[in-house]
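Worked example

This section walks through a single chain of length 230. The input is the sequence exactly as stored; nothing has been trimmed or padded.
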Amino acid sequence: MGKFSLDEFVNKTQQDDNENEYFELETERVLEVNLDGEVWSKMGAMISYIGDIKFERERVLEHGLGKMFKKALTGEGIQLMKANGKGRLYLADQGKKITIFDLKGESICVNGNDLLAFEPSIEWDIHLMRKMAGVMSGGLFNVTLQGKGKVAITTHFEPLTLLVKPGETVYTDPHATVAWSGNLKPEFKTDISFRTFIGRGSGESIQMAFSGEGFVIIQPFEEVYVSKES
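Given that input, the structure is written out below as tokens.
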């Protein structure tokens, strides 16, 4: 960032008190939530807060029995935290770049590890990538979000959006795939003739295949998830 006096550094990096949107990008890697009620976020994403805010881990039956079983099947799954109160909440995830979507009735599917926060007005559900079980370690699930409200996702570096057009299939690396439009249903393609030197356990090349009409968001980074075992 260069050289600064202390006053110069504080003036350049201090929070912006003039922003009043529910979700604001305080920086491209820090999300500010101007909270007056509730918000759901990824567990462990809180880095600071100002005001009267209470935090609560998602209870086992918080979102119903069906989601509980799906989360159990995914291992760690997506662990959520509920913040309740009034004040400013700052969220981040390992320095990843943050993008805010304002859903207006649309739906989007997000890799569970890349979901940072969403308004309680958003409906969501977990979907397992069953065909990937035993091939990839972790990251075998995605979260479908729909309705009206704000959703924040994270990416390593700048995201790229690929348009999926009728008659053209878009193939992506699952480790680099962040999100896609809710109407798309990805298939998985295994190419056993193409061996990789990056150390995937199966030695096979796995791609996600998107057909139809919509979009896919990818990142220029292969995010390999490690399953947490007790």
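What to look for: Residues 45 and 91 are 5 Å apart (CA to CA).
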